[in-house]
Amino acid sequence: MKVLGASVLIAESMTLGFAILLAMKDHSQAAIIYGCVVSFLLFVSAGLVRFPGGFVIGSLMQIAMIAFGFVEPSFFIIGVVLIGLWVAAIVVGRKGEAARAALLAAAAKKP
Fold first, then answer.
1. 50 φ, ψ to 5°?
2. Which of 5, 22, 25, 76 stands 20 to 30 A from 11 (CA)?
3. Prediction pTM value
4. Do residues 3 and 92 touch, judged by C-beta distance below 8 A?
């Protein structure tokens, strides 16, 4: 779950970075700074996923990422797709960790 979550957050950070390039010519400097800060925080939150509150921080960053859609309207659609990946990473990651724990438990029972 941690690896998938971190991968999604890094992909979101890079995607937001490219969206900032699209927004550079038409929007204010404050909007560009906001995008840079959110992109950086998405990258940092990828490292925080290994801690207990990391997924909460990552989920809050999803809201900040969607808010960039007010700067670049196409990012509303991209943001929804990326939030879908975030949810999928959590769901699939939990299933994967449960399967791994079952395999480890089965291997520990064998003499």
1. -75, -15
2. 25
3. 0.85
4. no
Asked if 58 and 9 count as a contact pair (C-beta separation under 8 A), the reply is yes
Q: φ and ψ at 28, to 5 degrees?
A: -70, 165
**Count, residues in the chain:** 111
Six-digit token string for 105: 């438990």
* DSSP conformation letters of 47-72: HHTTSTTHHHHHHHHHHHHHHGGGTS
Task: From first to last of the 111 residues of the chain, give the pLDDT tens digit.
Answer: 788 899 999 999 999 999 898 888 888 899 899 999 999 999 999 999 999 889 999 999 999 999 999 988 888 999 999 999 999 999 998 898 888 888 888 888 876
CB 92 within 8 A of CB 43: no
Which two three-digit tokens encode residue 40? 């950086």
Tokens standing for residue 86: 């975030």
